[in-house]
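User: Last request for today: this protein with phenylalanine, please.
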Amino acid sequence: AVPQREQWTGQVGFILSALGSAVGLGNIWRFPGVAYESGGGAFLIPYVVALITAGIPILFLDYAIGHRFRGSVPLALKRLGGKLGEGLGWFQVAICVFISIYYTAVLAWSSSYFVFSFDLRWGDDTAGFFTGDYLQTAASPFTLDFVPAVMIPLAIAWIVTLGILAAGVVKGIQRANIIFIPLLIVGFLILVVYALTLPGAMDGLNAFFTPDFAALADPNVWIAAYGQIFFSLSVAFGIMITYSSYRRRRSNMTGAGLVVAFGNSSFELLAGIGVFATLGFFAFQQGVGIAELEGLTGVGLSFMTFPAIVSQMPGGAWFGALFFGSLTLAGLTSLISILEVVIASLRDKFGWTRRNAVLGFGGILAVISLVLFGTTSGLTALDTIDAWSNQLGIVASAVGMTIVVMWVRRKGPELARHLSAVSTFKVGILWQIFTSVLAPLVLGYMLIAKIVDFLQNGYEGYDTWYLWAAGWGSLLIMLVAAFVLPQLRWRHDPEKFEVWP
Ligand code: PHE
Ligand code: NA
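Assistant: Here's the final one, the structure of the complex with phenylalanine:
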């Protein structure tokens, strides 16, 4: 007999879990710096345009596919569009496999730094401490000496995540999000309020919000906005397809979607305020302007700049604990969602039990992750795989999905009806235009521009051979997955799974 598909217990469980996926490292370490560098307050214009014309429409598309065709990504897309759809599904699964391997590493670092906040172990040279004492990044990306200080938290991160996934949708994923997301919101709010009381905080906010309207004439600013929205909402990764396949039959799809989308953007804005208030304090301490500071995004912001600030701040220990604790919770709840895409797909295709999929395949990913990131090779690999998966992989997947669903299989009207059936917010022709015309045009342009950029300029000055191996190589593996896996036999006849009528 085909087992019943698992289900969230209700709307709140779904919304908190979807929010848990959306609110991640991107909100905390990516948005503030990207906004600052792309026009400050003026960036909010392309950001909102991107949210409304592509972010929310494609979020709805994910929801509609997952709910109507009620399956993991390859299953739902196979039902929607046959082998072509299934291939696209496995492409998304492969992206999730790559991302999970390095996302866990960042989670492990964050939890280490949570502990370090209490003894300020990083000293004065925080950048040197991070790459040297802590990561022990080797000069060559291909030496594999184990680094226990990273290996141990990384192993713990995998055990916790796989444990949550093994417990199932309700007892594992939903329960974790119901606990962690409120905790994250409260903890982060305290951090932001405290940051606002620091001397220099207002200068930071001025730097962040002062609009540079000239930036709006730069196409790269618009690309940055679409890129941020895309990554931030976790669309076109298969995550929202998977999570909405666990919703009850009559669910308010678009209402929940709007809560998640605006909740995620609010958290992002809050992070911008918190991070720039803190940077304002740092600039004030050093007697320099914000513009002279370096390391305002990503790994640099979190593991080099922030530790230096924490060391200088009154009450730094608990400020650091709140910051790294927030990163850890935001990362954990996102990682859970990335891996669930993979687990659900393997179960549907090969008929594995949840436990076997989690312990078997999850175990293999954990070992790969430990070898790549628990060793001296860590940082370079992370950086490269991140750039190729996020800046090319997801965008390609989104373009492919909109074209296959809206043009090749022409499912626009059917999905619009499905979304509107019992939802508070109705979608119609405008949604179809955004998803079928505007999004593929903008995203297709972004994709081509990025491919040309990587081919012409490389990335971060890494050796060309290395980019071919790690960057283009991982993209090639995603494509191979997309072509090969649909050829394998379904363990269960996909038509026989229970589908919502
Ligand atoms: N949306 C998350 C963020 O903003 C990132 C994420 C990426 C989550 C991939 C899940 C999958 O950080
Ligand atoms: Na996000």
